[in-house]
Structure formats: structure tokens, C-alpha cells
Design a protein that fits this description.
This protein has 417 residues and is an alpha/beta fold. Strands 4-5-8-3-9 form a 5-stranded parallel sheet, with helices on both faces. Strands 10-11-12 form a 3-stranded mixed sheet. The radius of gyration is 29 Å and the shape is extended. Helix content is 43%, strand content 12%. It has 3 domains: 44 residues, no CATH class; 216 residues, P-loop containing nucleotide triphosphate hydrolases (Rossmann fold), CATH 3.40.50; 95 residues, Helicase, Ruva Protein, domain 3 (Orthogonal Bundle). Bound molecules: adenosine-5'-triphosphate and magnesium ion.
Length: 417
């Protein structure tokens, strides 16, 4: 019987062919071992993984030294498709806000105080307003909360008090008052508390605006840390809202006609453009919205006085919706592919099918939000059936499936006989 040759357990090379073989401690000179070459390879793999991880982390934050509007825009580009004008405007607004929160302690003795630039985002449903606000909070690494203006009530009425918004922000901050005071609050559906707008809510709308005013105007908000009422005074939490950034958003349907009236009547507005006089294009008109138009729409002047930045978002077009469907890391299509993948089934959605889904989303006027509900409808039956079928290899969704003309095509694994 010959002497057993000892080889690297990974590459199989013999001891004589490598510089060193490292053995497992408990089995010296036999059993499991690794050679110097494989050790180096493993090191390389580990380092590659580490640097990939570091790069991924870098992708979701921007270092303080690197914080510039162009860098913020690049970050937004990674998350939001289209909406270029809005992303540029937001990048500048956020850059200014960042400078402000970073210099809070420095400018105490300075004559020039940087005032807060709360933002109003205007755009149709499902076009990315909340997504932009969410992405910015991620970028700045500050707590973030979303509230719905329609559920808010004046103090003393049944409904949600505005103080609850700050309480939610405090919870999102990990109950850290210091972090809460630099957070971002997004208040959706702000157009629905307009006082005189076409479709606005009249009753109570102004009351809620007044209540919000107190909160956004630098002041402090006090709330009880839990839902238990009648807690002793010392249990109350107080948050200074001076540096909390408020981002309001809403669809502001028909505001274009208010702009049209202003431009048509005076034509002397600071930003007015004679060409715009002729256009009845709503997109163009919306882009020219000024504070005065929003006040006409029904937000009170004192409230608008605290929101110096107005950003308009456009309706997403066919190409943008198509990109949204599959390009982002967490896109709807990738999510479905993953769901099928878990069952070892390949999901194919043809180009025609994607276009048909986009067309339906446009018809429903629900922006990118519509993509998910249409997908849900298209996929429901097949998602019900496939898990209880055997050997399904691939599911193909084509235009006919989306148009409900036929069922998805299935292919099956062939059994080796
Ligand atoms: N521009 C976009 N780029 C990428 N994804 C988008 C974009 N717009 C919308 N989406 C997708 O649609 C979803 C809904 O968008 P979002 O919540 O931002 O809409 P919204 O403008 O706030 O609408 P609403 O007025 O109804 O609140 C997002 O979670 C995202 O998946
Ligand atoms: Mg929203």
C-alpha cells in the first residue's frame, strides 16, 4: 500500500506543488487542509465582498464633505425616474436645509440667520412626491414621517391632532429628541384642506391650516409619550420644531386655470412669459405656479408665507412608467420575478405586455401607483395556480394576457426518462 498523498482540500494540489499547506488544528498532517494559494484567493474574495458592501453603503448616503446639489441630484436619480426639474429644485432646497441644520450651533452669534425653506410639492397622484421626500430623509439620515392632511383636525375636534405628527417623527427617530428636531415631516393631500378651492374641504380646512401653522412656525410641540392620558406633567415630551423640514404635497387639480387667469389678466407677474399667454397646456401652466396662485386655490397667506419653495412634478409619461416598472432595484417586475423564483419558476413579461400595462396605468390616471394594481390583477390567477402545479419551468405574460384575451403560456421541465 503506497503512502497517502496529502492534498489541498480546495484545489487538490499536493504539498510538493505549493509553498505551504495549513492543516486543521485537530488533524495535523492529514484530513482537511488549505494551501497558501487558496488562502490568498479566499482573502481576495473576502476583501472584494467588503469593498462591495462599503460601495453599497456609499450609494445610499452622501458624505458631509461631498454634500452639493449635484451630488444630491445624483442620489435622487438612483431612486426617482424622470422628474428632472423637480429633482434639481429639491436638490438646491435640500442643500440649503442641510447647511442650516449643520450650522445650527455655529450661527448663534451671527447676524444672518438662515431661515427654513419648507417645500410644497405639487403633482398628480403616483408621480413620486412621497418617494422624493422619503429618499431625501434617507440621504440626510434623518427621521422621516408622512401624515395625511385630510385626517388632521383642529385642536379640540375628533380626529388626529397635529401634535401626533411630531410624535410619530419622535418614534421614527428611535425616541431621540435631538434627532427628532432635525427630521423631515411630509404632509400629503395638503390641497384637500384648501378653504375655497373647487374641490377643497371648506369646513375646518382653515382651522387645520392654523394648527399646522403653529407647528411649522418655529415653536415647540408637546405630547405624551404614550397613549395613556392624564399622565403627570413631567412625562410630557417637548420637541423644538424650528429646524424640522416640512414638505407638503398635493395634486392641486385645476390650479392651471388659476395660473392661466393670472397670466391672462395681468401678464406682469415676475416670472411671466408672454408665450405662456397663448398656451393652454396644463403642464406648462403648472410649471409657472406662484405662491399667489396657491393662495387663490385656498391655502391661507400666513400658511403659504412659511413655504417659500414650490416644486412642480409632471405627470409620468409612457417611457418613464416603463422604466419605473423594471429599472429600480426594487421595481415591481423584479419583485414578481423574485416571487416566482422562490418557486423555481422563471417569469417572463414581454415588452408588449409591459407596454400594455403602462397604457392601462395611463388610462386609469393613477401614475406609477397603478402599475402595481394592474400587475396584481394580471398575475392573480397564475399566482394561484402555479404553486400547486408540478414541473412548471417558465410563465410567460404577453400582451394578450394583459388584455385578458388568453391565459399565460406555461412551459414545463422535461422528465429524464
Ligand atoms: N418618478 C418615479 N420613479 C420611480 N418610482 C416612482 C416614481 N413615481 C412613483 N413611483 C412609484 O410609485 C409609488 C407611488 O409613488 P408616490 O407615493 O411617491 O406617489 P405620490 O406622488 O406621493 O402620490 P399621491 O399624491 O397619491 O400621494 C412609489 O412607491 C414608487 O414605487
Ligand atoms: Mg404621496
Amino acid at each position: 500500500m503506497g503512502v497517502k498523498k496529502i492534498r489541498c482540500s480546495f484545489c487538490g494540489k499536493e504539498e510538493k506543488d505549493v509553498r505551504k499547506l495549513v492543516f486543521r488544528k485537530d488533524t495535523p498532517n492529514e484530513g482537511v487542509c488549505i494551501c497558501d494559494e487558496c488562502t490568498m484567493k479566499c482573502m481576495g474574495m473576502l476583501m472584494q465582498e467588503e469593498s462591495a458592501k462599503a460601495a453599497a453603503e456609499k450609494e445610499t448616503t452622501v458624505s458631509a464633505a461631498d454634500m452639493r446639489p449635484s451630488r444630491i441630484k445624483k442620489f435622487l436619480d438612483e431612486h426617482i425616474i424622470g422628474q428632472d426639474r423637480a429633482k434639481v429644485a429639491m436638490s438646491v432646497a435640500i442643500y440649503n436645509h442641510y447647511k442650516r441644520i449643520e450650522n445650527i450651533h455655529l450661527d448663534a452669534s451671527d447676524d444672518v440667520q438662515l431661515t427654513k425653506g419648507n417645500i410644497l410639492m405639487m403633482g398628480p397622484t403616483g408621480c413620486g412626491k412621497t418617494l422624493i421626500a422619503q429618499s431625501i430623509a434617507k440621504l440626510l439620515n434623518v427621521p422621516f414621517t408622512v401624515a395625511d392632511a385630510t385626517t388632521l383636525t383642529e385642536a379640540g375636534y375628533v380626529g388626529e391632532d397635529v401634535e401626533n405628527i411630531i410624535k410619530n417623527l419622535w418614534i421614527a427617530s428611535g425616541k431621540n429628541i435631538e434627532r427628532t428636531s432635525k427630521g423631515i415631516v411630509c404632509i400629503d393631500e395638503i390641497d384637500k384642506i384648501a378653504t375655497r378651492g373647487d374641490k377643497g374641504r371648506d369646513v375646518g380646512g382653515e382651522g387645520v391650516q392654523q394648527a399646522l401653522l403653529k407647528m411649522i412656525e418655529s415653536g415647540s410641540v408637546t405630547f405624551t409619550p404614550d397613549s395613556a392620558k392624564n399622565r403627570p406633567q413631567q412625562d410630557l415630551i417637548q420637541v423644538d420644531t424650528t429646524n424640522i423640514l416640512f414638505i407638503f404635497s398635493g395634486a392641486f387639480n385645476n390650479i392651471g386655470s388659476i395660473v392661466q387667469n393670472r397670466i391672462g389678466v395681468s401678464g406682469l407677474g415676475f416670472h411671466s412669459d408672454p408665450v405662456a399667454k397663448k398656451t393652454d397646456n396644463d403642464v406648462e401652466l403648472r410649471r409657472q405656479v406662484e405662491t399667489i396662485d396657491v393662495i387663490k386655490f385656498g391655502l391661507i397667506p400666513e400658511f403659504m408665507g412659511r413655504i417659500p419653495v414650490i416644486v412642480t412634478l409632471d405627470e409620468l409619461d409612457e417611457d418613464a412608467l416603463l422604466d419605473i416598472m423594471w429599472k429600480p432595484k426594487n421595481s415591481i417586475l423584479r419583485q414578481y420575478e423574485r416571487l416566482f423564483d422562490i418557486d423555481h419558476v422563471k417569469l417572463t413579461v414581454t415588452e408588449d405586455a409591459r407596454r400594455a400595462i403602462v397604457k392601462e396605468a395611463i388610462r386609469r390616471k393613477s401614475g406609477a401607483r397603478g402599475l402595481r394594481s394592474i400587475f396584481e390583477e394580471v398575475m392573480l390567477d397564475v399566482m394561484y395556480e402555479v404553486p400547486s402545479m408540478e414541473n412548471v419551468q417558465e410563465v410567460t405574460i404577453d400582451e394578450g394576457v394583459v388584455l385578458k384575451q388568453h391565459d399565460p403560456a406555461l412551459t414545463f421541465y422535461k422528465h429524464a426518462s
